[in-house]
């Protein structure tokens, strides 16, 4: 009898441990992708050099069909053929030597780039090629110089440089990375963390580098409103009403070696009855050193600005009014 009780106790103990072990394994399996995401986010935040390209993927016809009469097929096709690549180079400790670059492909035309290096803005663009694509005449291109010495170099597709320290106060603030941009980056990180905390994260069984994050429109709306209000408080009263129907929102993330490589959000999941997939896609790279381009033509815009002439939008988080 004693042996039977002992045997029964052992069996019960083993069974209990097996069940508990299975539950623990499931919890670890569910937690592990979130830990990987947090580590990747921290790695991205700590990286000295980063790069990210933003573009649309999928079938342009699906987006036109989803948007209905409001969509222009030619404009949508141009969007799918365009992209923006943002690169940062933090240099050493502190923000004094931070550098950044913004490269733009416009409907397949490459070569437009803005760099911020050591208090100067550098700009080049294939002006004539872009002008021809969008129907501008040579006379229109000539007017781009606006009478500022050196801007002819820009229309010729060469690098120009602007010393932002010489610009009037408001113009200088919009022509270089500033505390406002740093704040936006910090708030974006906070938003990503908040959405992750309340989301389900699973690993794709067919691709162990692919994580599928499921949140909801209600959570996404709340976080988008928080982000917009944090960056620009005046937007609080202008923010659109919350969606009437709460539904799942899926975000696809890819990681390799502990680093983000890509992220996608299918924009058609927000359109009831839409077919196909059109994704806003981010592609991450390790970035590279950003240097001042050699041979840039200096351009002094201070005179034009003081006289009241309009200054081209040169890369702040938003144009000044």
From TrEMBL:
Protein name according to UniProt: Lipoprotein
